[in-house]
C-alpha cells in the first residue's frame, strides 16, 4: 500500500515539474557578451587596419593553445559585418511573417539571434573553403552568395528558389555550400568527406562541418571524428550550441556539455558565438591549423536563438520569457557591435540609420520579388530534372509504374 502511494506521489511530482518551464542556465566558462573589446587608435582611412583586443573570456581551449586575443580589422569590415548581420535578421524576420501568413509551409528553422556565427565565419574564409550545416541554414546560404530573393522564393516553393523550389527551408545549396540537411547529424560525416576531397585534390582549403548541440550525441558524429583524426583531414567540426536541442536543455541531454571537448583525441576550442569578431578570429585560426597538415579541430560556438526550435515551436514552454529577454537585451550580437562602433566613433547614428534604411529597402524588395515569382510548372520534366547533375542524366528513369517511366532523351 505504501509502495503504491509512493509511486503515485512520485508520478504526480514528475508531472507537475514537467509542466514548469526550465530556467536552468548551464555554466559557461566563455562569455557570450561582446562588450569588452579594447581598441587602439582608429585611423581615418576606412580601409586602414587597426588593432582590437577581444575580452579575456572569449576562448576556452582544449589540448591546444588558443588563438591570440589580438586581431586587426578595418572600419569598412566592421560596417560590412553589421550590415550582413542586419540583413540576415531582416530576411529571417520576413520568413517568420510569411510563415505566420501561411505562405510558407512545412518545416522552417530560423537563426534569429545566431547571426554572428554565419557572418563571422564567412569573413574568415574564402569562397573556395567549404561549409555544410544542418537545417538552420538560411544565414549561411545568404553569406555563401545566395540572394535574399532566391532564399525566400525557396521557402515559398517557387521556381526561382535557390533549389528551384524543391528543397524548402532545410535544403539550400550554393557554391562551396553543401546545405541545409534535414537528418539530425547526418551532414557531419558528409562534411568529413568533403574535407577529405580537399586533401585528396591537394587543395589548401578547409571545411566547416556544422551541427547543433542537439545533434552532438549522434553516433555518426563520433565516427566522423575518428576517421578525420586517423587521416588528418582538414575539417573543423563546429557545434552551434544555442543551449537547447529542440525543447531540451543541453544539460538534460548531454553528460558533457563542453562540446569542444567531445573529440577527446582532437583539440577543441570554445568560442563566444555572440561576438562576430571572436568568430572571425577563431575561424581564421582554425583554417590555418587544419590546412597546415595538423588534422581536424572541434569547435563550439556559444550562441542563442530567440525563437523556437522551428516555427511550430513557441519556444517558451521549456524556458522563461525573462531568459529570452535577457539575452536580447544584454548579449545581442548586432546591438553589441553597433554600440562599440558608436563608442569608437567608427560610425555615427545617422550612418547606422542609413544602413538600416538600405537593408530594409533591399530585403523588402527582394522578398516582394520572391512572393511574385512563379511556381514550378506541374510537369514530369520539372519533377525529374534535378535527380542527376544537368547533362549526366541516363536515357530514362523509372516512375512508380511502367507508364510513369520518364525519358530524358526523346
A few lines on this structure:
It is an enzyme of class 1 (oxidoreductase). This protein is of the alpha/beta class and 410 residues long.
Describe the structure.
The protein is an alpha/beta fold and 410 residues long. It has two domains: 26-376, 3-Layer(aba) Sandwich (Rossmann fold); 380-410, no CATH class. It is built from 13 helices and 13 strands. The protein has helices at residues 2-18, 75-100, 115-124, 138-143, 148-155, 187-200, 219-230, 250-253, 276-290, 321-330, 333-343, 349-372, 380-384, and strands at 38-39, 50-53, 59-62, 70-73, 130-132, 207-212, 235-241, 244-245, 248-249, 268-272, 297-302, 396-397, 406-407. The strands form four sheets. Strands 3-10-11-7-6-5 form a six-stranded mixed sheet, sandwiched between helices. Helix 7 links the parallel strand 6 (207-212) and strand 7. The radius of gyration is 23 Å and the shape is globular. Residues 1-7 and 9-27 have low confidence and may be disordered. Keywords: Oxidoreductase, Pyruvate, Thiamine pyrophosphate. One of its GO terms (molecular function) is pyruvate dehydrogenase (acetyl-transferring) activity. Its cofactor is thiamine diphosphate. It is an enzyme of class 1 (oxidoreductase). The pyruvate dehydrogenase complex catalyzes the overall conversion of pyruvate to acetyl-CoA and CO(2).
Q: What is the secondary structure topology, with strand pairs?
A:
Blueprint: H1 2-18, E1 38-39, E2 50-53, E3 59-62, E4 70-73, H2 75-100, H3 115-124, E5 130-132, H4 138-143, H5 148-155, H6 187-200, E6 207-212, H7 219-230, E7 235-241, E8 244-245, E9 248-249, H8 250-253, E10 268-272, H9 276-290, E11 297-302, H10 321-330, H11 333-343, H12 349-372, H13 380-384, E12 396-397, E13 406-407
Parallel strand pairs: 5-6, 6-7, 7-11, 10-11
Antiparallel strand pairs: 1-2, 2-4, 3-10, 8-9, 12-13
